[in-house]
Amino acid sequence: MPVASTPTGVTFLADWYPQPEHGGFYQALERGFYREAGLDVTIVPGGPRAMVLQKVGLGQAELAVWRTDDVTVAVSRDVPIVCLAGVFQRSPQALMFHSAYPVSSYEDLRGRPVMAGAASVWVQAVERRHGMSIQLMPLSFTIAQFLEDRLLVQQCMATSEPYQVARAGVEAGILLLDEAGTGPYHAIIGNRDWVRANPEAAAAFVRASLRGWRDFLEGDPGPAFDAISRLNPGHDEGSMRYSRDAMLRHELVLGSGDHGEKLGALDRGRLEQNARLLHELGVAARLVEVDELIAPGFPLATADGR
Question: Which residues, other chains included, contact 45 with Cβ-Cβ below 8 Å and sequence gap of 6+?
Answer without folding.
Answer: 14, 16, 17, 18, 231, 232
